[in-house]
Each structure stands twice: as C-alpha cells, then as structure tokens.
Amino acid sequence: MDNCGPADPFSCKKQRGSNLMFKKFLLQFFLFLLIAGLLWLGIRQINLYKAARIDERIEKLEERLGDLFLNIFAQQHRQITEPEVHEYLEYLTSEIFQKNNIDRESIDIYLLRSKTVNAFALPGRNIILLSGLIDYTETPEQLIGVIAHEIAHLEADHVMKKLSREVGIAVLLAAVSGNYNMELLREVAKLIASNSYSRAIETEADLMAMEYMINAGINPRGLIDLFKRFGEDFDILPSELQWLGTHPASEDRANQLKKKLEELAHTDFKVFDAEEWEQFKERLENP
User: Fold this and answer.
1) How much is the average pLDDT of 51-75?
2) Fewest Cβ atoms nearer than 10 Å: which of 140, 142, 191, 280?
C-alpha cells in the first residue's frame, strides 16, 4: 500500500516509480538466473556427452588392446584348454566372484603353459595365468590369492591407469588404429607382464585381495605364505619369479598383510581337499 496522499502527490508518484523499477529488476534478475541455469544445463549435457564418448572410446581401446595382447602371449605360450583344469579353477575362484559382487562373465582367465612363475592382468578385463605359477604354489589358497590380487588390479583399473601414465592414451590409440605398430605392442606387453606397479598400487591390490578372500571364506594366509616364499626363493630363482616386483617388497607385503589379518576377527575358513589339489596340478604337468 502506498504511504502517500493528496498533500504530497509528487512523493507518491516517485514511490510508485521506485516500486516499478524494483519489480523490473527482480524480473530481470530471475530471467538472468533462468537463462544461466539453462546454459549450465546445456553445457553440462554437452560435457556429459563428451565424457560418455571418451569413455566409450577408451573402453573400445581397452578391448582392442586386450585382444592384441592375448594374441601376442598366445603366440609365445601354448594355451591350456583341458576342461577338468578349468573346472577346478572355476571351483577355486567362484566364491571370490560371488561373495564380492564381481561379475564373473566380465573377466576371462587364460591358462598358458610356461615355466615362468607369473600371472598378470590385461586390458579388456583379462587375466593370464602361467602354469609355472600354478606349479610353484603349494596350496589352493596361495593360487586363489594370486588370482584375487589380479582381479583387484582389474577392479581398481590399475592396468589402464598404468598404461595411460607410462605409455599414453594417444600412443596406444595410434598403436591399435589402422596398421598397428606390432613392435610397440610387444614392448607394451612386456611392460604389463613385468608387474612393475608402484608400491602403493600393489598394496591396494594386496589389501583388496585379502578382503575378497575373507568375504569368500578363504584363508588369506595363503597369500601371506606365498609372499614369504617368494622372499626366500628370490635369490635362487630371480628370473623365474616375475610375479614379484622386488625381494624386499615381498617381506614388507607379507608383514603388512599379516598385521592386517591379526586385526580382523577370527573366521572359519573353507578347507580344500588336498587330493583334488594334487590331481589338478598333475593334470597340468601331464596334459
């Protein structure tokens, strides 16, 4: 309501003008906010679209790299395809996937025949297990620990992060497009097989593997024992033990996992049949 009367008509007119200007200002301000909001939403949609396209491109790159690296390693080592071997391996690892909500169908595990003690994750959610590593492990829990560790690398996207940092996405895209550079891909494959992750990344994968095993009711001490054994055998078999980064690291990693395990409440762990384990290893030795 206007506070003006016939005694001061000029003041009344001035006040009405001020009110009108204030209303126009509010209207312009709200219009500005509306336009700014619409622009922000538009830009956000564009950025999301670009991000989705980039993610799609990276995913295709990862799948392509995985196929190429698998082909490289398959040329170097004969693939183990015996159904009984794969069935037992599936039996060992099924709870790791189920109890940790990891899509089993999204990860492929390949067994290759080689005396080298090694396992590694590849782009495209692939894992390579060399028969030398299976032969080296003494218990199912040790082998499961290795596989859980490699699954952790995939789940945490360590493989592509490593390649992006050390090789570069642009180089990788160039390597797989058109007439891809096979020599470069072979060198990158060597880099992956070397397991030369940083200490922080390996620690993360170790702890994730332990968590996977505990959730699955599998004794993670198998992974601890394997690290200790690596440390003991490294001076004797340095070239064969490629799954290990460095000798001191094995001791540190074993102690770190042991300390973590001691902090956890006691759990009843699954017991694997020793005879079935030995039969599994015999099948690998006598295909």
Assistant:
1) 78
2) 191
